[in-house]
Fold each of these.
Amino acid sequence: MCMVKYSKAIGHQDSKCENRISSLTADRDALRDERYQLKLDSINLTKEMEVRDTLQEEVNRLNLNEPCQEGWKTFNGKCYYFSTSGVTRSWESSRKYCKERGADLVIITTKEELNFVVQSYRVTWIGLSDREQENSWKWVDGSDLIDDGFWQVGEPNNHQNDEHCAEVSRSAKRFNDVPCERKFSWACEN
Ligand SMILES: [Ca+2]
Ligand SMILES: [Ca+2]
Ligand SMILES: [Ca+2]
């Protein structure tokens, strides 16, 4: 054990003790470095575990035959809800229904998805509107409508300056802008 001894000149530790102290200091620094490295390892490990869990959830979802909530349909790995036949809502109210279930109104980005959605109802609300800025059509996730090939001929026409929400119909298989307060069936996507 290192005892602090004083030589005749008071205040001078003996050199054996100094060596011991510097050795302990080095040990302490090494432990600090090690602890820091362990912390980094632990952070990385946590991140890796999070990624692994997410992937595992995705694998489970894909392996199951019923990957979506009860009553929802699967299409290309996404889940869709189609409102009960005969029940209709305004665009905003339809959207609220979807959001309360962790989803949003359907965003149609491919011809396949369009065909999948239009077969459900005569007229279905979709998550597309120009409510914020006239003729600037945006999906409910904030993305712009890039492919404008899905409008019916002559649409969107903003009839009577009061058409700011979009629907698709089974007959037209194309988008049309209509007043948002109208009541239609709706489709959610998650
Ligand atoms: Ca979609
Ligand atoms: Ca409009
Ligand atoms: Ca229209």
Note: The pocket of calcium ion (ligand 1) is lined by residues 107-109, 113, 189 (CB under 6 Å).
Amino acid sequence: MDISSAVLNRRSCRGFKQEPVSEALLREIFSLAQQAPSGCNVQPWQVIVVSGEKKDQLKNQLMMDVMQKQKPYPDFDWSVAYSGKHKERQFGSADALYSAMGIERQDKMQRNIAMMKNWAFFDAPHVAIFTMDKYLNLMGAVDIGIYAQTLSLLMMERGISNCMQGALGQFPGPIREMFDLPEERGVIFGMSFGYADNDVPANTARTSREALEEAVLFAS
Ligand SMILES: Cc1cc2nc3c(=O)[nH]c(=O)nc-3n(C[C@H](O)[C@H](O)[C@H](O)COP(=O)(O)O)c2cc1C
């Protein structure tokens, strides 16, 4: 698969087959992703790949934490309130997902149930948790974004799908506890991944993109 096809065909996956990725393939993907660029080559990513029983335990702890605490307590500032065209696009992506799942816009309960699937990793066999030293702030966040997309495309090339999840940075407590993270390290976001189950309705969701002229100015 060439890079253009990977970019064109990649989409967020929210339903997976119960078939783990082999350890050899996991190691191959994550070692290649080490080549991702970062500002001054600081390589801020400290990634935890969770699978098997540990992943199930983490899922249970996260679901409990979300239900008990209700209000997110992220390690990093995710508090942007989208407005204008950004808000419209946010609605557009939610609409694409909930329509694919057959959930009405007003059906708050079903939407909440769908949201909870984030912390069950959409039943994926693996989840990658991206952490970094908190003081790195915006610079680190940019690097981690680039790292995550590098990882995503390497997965695509091998027939593996994923969903990046800001939701996994919203309730960092169980991750901090399970992996004994020091206070200076924060959970920024995560990525559930595995082989896509194309029979899951959520996986039929399609998002759109703006026209090139909306996004890019070619100046000369
Ligand atoms: C940084 C980041 C965080 C995201 N967080 C979530 C999330 O918490 N839950 C979710 O279902 N999708 C999440 N997504 C997926 C986006 O909703 C998705 O990429 C967007 O709607 C475009 O759709 P596509 O990936 O299918 O092209 C996230 C994507 C990114 C890049």
Note: The pocket of flavin mononucleotide is lined by residues 11-12, 14, 93, 118, 163-167, 189, 207 (CB under 6 Å).
